[in-house]
Structures are given as C-alpha cells and as structure tokens.
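Feature request, filed as a ticket because there's no other form

It would be nice if the structure record came with a short human-readable summary line next to the tokens. Right now we just get the raw output. Example of a typical job, pasted below so the devs can see what we mean:
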Amino acid sequence: MERKAPDYRKLRLGNIHTPEFRHLFLLLGWVVYFILYFVTENLIPADRCHVIHCGLDDRIPFCEWFVIPYFLWYGLVFGSLLYYLLKDVERFKQLQIFIMITQAVAMIFYIVYPSRQDLRPETFADPNLLTDLVGWLYSFDTNTGVFPSLHVAYSLGLASVWLKDDHASAVWKTFVVVMVVLICLSTCFIKQHSALDGFCAAGVSLIAEGLVFGKSYWLPKLRN
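Raw output as currently delivered:
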C-alpha cells in the first residue's frame, strides 16, 4: 500500500470536509466512546453487574510487574494512531475503524449485559512502587464494564494493522507482537480482567478484522 499523508499545514475549518482531511472526523468516535464510558461507569450500579469469573482466573497469580506493559498500552495506542495520522491515512482509517467497531460492540455489552470482576487483591503482600501503580490504577479504573476487554481488543487491532504494514521493519513488528502478548497477559496478571474478558475480546476483534480487512457487504473497501 502506497503511503498517503496530507499536508496538515493546509488544514482549515473550511476544508476539513474535503477528501484530504475528512478522515479526521473518525476521531469523533473517541468523543462518543468517552461519553458512553462515563455513562456505563457512573450510572450502572455495581450490584446490577454480572460477575465474570472462570477457573483459569484462580490459577493466574497476581504479578505487579505486568503493570508495566499494561500502562505502555496507552502509549502504543496513542503513538500508533498519531504515527499513521501523520504518515499513512489509509492505515490510520483502518486502525481507527477497527477500534471504533470494538468500542461499539463493547458498549453494547456493557449496557445490555453489565459486568464486573471481583478478582482484585484487597491488600498487596509485598508493597512496592509497582503495587502503588496498580493501586493507583484501581482508583480510577473501576472493576465494572470488563466483558469484553478493550485493552485486549485494541491490542489485537494494533498487531493486525502493524503486521500488514509493508513499510514497518521486522524488528518493529516483532516488538509490537511481543508487547501485544504482554499487554493481553497483563490484564489477567494484575487482576484487571477475567480471562473470559480476553477471550470475548478476541472474538470481537475477529468481527472487526473481517469488517475492516475482509470482503464485506457492511463496510466497503476503504478509500480516500
């Protein structure tokens, strides 16, 4: 795929709707997502949420080291979107639409089938800087709205897009795959998610994969 990057120095309010810049409207998906996130996090009480749990969860130990890849996920998502926004519009659209599909499906789940997990440790056996980070994470990222895991879904989308990028080096692709694996594992090892949340996210990602990259009657091939 040939890289196509617009000259954002020419961007004005009057021309944002033109073919060169209208891909920027896809960023409005984040506005919708954050509004729905606020609603699901604050207006759906925890006692109405279904507890997500499976036997595998009890076999996975808490490991605070996994908070590192968990937080690196934020940088990988933001950095990838920004990179493609500046360098390759088609890849940006693919990644953003992939993310929007997973967001939409997840929000339907969160509203129709509210979920929570009760896996978090009440205390940390060996308090340290990493457990402090986990505790800080727990303070603003609640244990509700977990099925499916968007951490996992976004990560699989990132891996899919980067692996299809002919301009990305083998070293970078390997790094992304390793990071995605660690991020997916981190959701369980720091007890942010049940393993079921990850499995469900993988299924949602397959839907997004088919719609964005496969032949589909619902989403035509992306064009400028």
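Something like this underneath would help us a lot:
The CA atoms of residues 133 and 159 lie 26 Å apart.
The two ends are 13 Å apart (CA to CA).
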